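Hi Q.,

Before the meeting this afternoon, I wanted you to have the DQA prediction in hand. No need to reply - just skim if you have a minute. The sequence and ligand are here:
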Amino acid sequence: MKFLIINGPNINMLGIREPSVYGRQDYAALKQFISDTCSENGIECELFQSNHEGAIVDRIQSAYGVFDGIVINPAAYTHTSIAILDALKAVAIPAVEVHISDVSAREDFRQISYAGMACIKTYMGLGFEGYRQAVIYLKNYLEADK
Ligand code: DQA
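Predicted structure with the ligand bound:
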């Protein structure tokens, strides 16, 4: 089983950006956490982070026929990007949405998730743990589908 893990804009600034919201661990620590989680669960994973909407769309498109599942934190593009929603729908690879913070308790402009409309499940407000839950959920979902 092969998963693509996508992180959107400013996730590379973890550890520096708003530690009271996103914690003190950096993106390198997140990458390590996700890689460890995947290997513990027998999943091959590739991690991708970009600050550019089009690059994320390109990466989703090139996942077609290659990856079994996608875990995505589109970051700010969550709330604006119909292009990312359309790309997820186009490839139709089962996807789980993750947010480090609890977006439901934040500003009004964060209350819509376009990408989430193409996802089978969303985890928010659990910090790094949300990525672990997402990987496990996706694995169980795909195994049940066999
Ligand atoms: C985020 C929440 C988004 O609203 C925000 O723009 C981010 C990170 C999160 O992981 O909590 O950049 O996706």
